[in-house]
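Fold this: CD276 antigen isoform X1
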Amino acid sequence: MLALLLCAVLAVHADALDVRVPESPVVALFGTDVVLNCSFSGVSKFNLSDMSVFWQLSDTQRTVHSFSQSRDQLIEQEERFSNRTSLFPDQLPAGNASLLLRRVRVSDEGSYTCFVRVQTYGRGAMLMQVAAPFSKPLVTWGQESALKPGDAVALSCEAYGGYPEAQVLWQDGAGRNLTDNITISQVANEKGLFSVKSVLTVILEPNSTYSCRLIHPLLGEEGQASVTISGQALGFPPLALWLTVALAVCLLALLVALTVVCRRKIRESCEEMRAEEEAKELEEAKELEEAKSSAATPLKS
């Protein structure tokens, strides 16, 4: 009712107060207190009993705070603002009609209108945005034992407790933005704060680095996390590694043993062949000697 009355009065007053509010959006941190500035000028000295200050939500025209007859008038105040708003009464004579809003919630975000009446009327509307920083992002990946270079693996980047929704950027070790094979989900809790999860699917390569950057639309860059997939991370699991080493050692020992045996066999075979050759040569020499002896003996008559 009071809002409709103020609007009607504003419509018929050509000489309005000079009411000033911020032109740029005011960013309020979740859970903190914020002052929505509103000042006025253009009137002579006055008594507080002769002025009224009225704050309302611009879109729904619901009452945020009301002051008249030298005191707060909160009968029509929106319930969710109960015990969270106040003016600065001692500064009203100086033209300060600012509103203190305590313990800012996500639901407080929106446009607020400041109405002031002192002899005549004026108003100004401003936008308040709510911001909550995200937790430091964390990057994880599934280190299954069967992974090997060339396999596809999902890298997950998660952060919590922020508002509004964040932008997530993936980059490789050279700082190049990655845009393919990315999914992102952002879910709000009962307080309106978001949890963000982004998944990047990559092909495993040894010694590869991937970074996840979280960018807050109101507060700027929130944080960065990275993961490096080393050659060791893509190796065999410990049991298979030891089995492979043991098998390799056994094969090497067997190869050495076979080499020694073969060399021994070859040496023995060569010695046998050499002995046979020497025996054969000795036999031939003996036969030749006997033949010469027979030829030299004279025949008897």
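The two ends are 174 Å apart (CA to CA). The chain has two domains: 2-131, 138-234.
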